[in-house]
Fold this protein.
Amino acid sequence: MSHVFNPNAPKKPTNVSINSDLLDKSRGLNINLSATLEAALTEQLRAHQRTQWKAENAKA
């Protein structure tokens, strides 16, 4: 499976805004926010790439 991003790139600290209740409940379950966000963004990038590929290859 090919990567949609460089998994070896260094991590970069950033700030995000999130619903406070969602954050509290996630922390209560020890959910890794960084890993969860990376997984969600990866899926969004893959979906975008699929859509773009379909549009570019529709005439084929």
About this structure: Residues 4 and 46 are 7 Å apart (CA to CA).
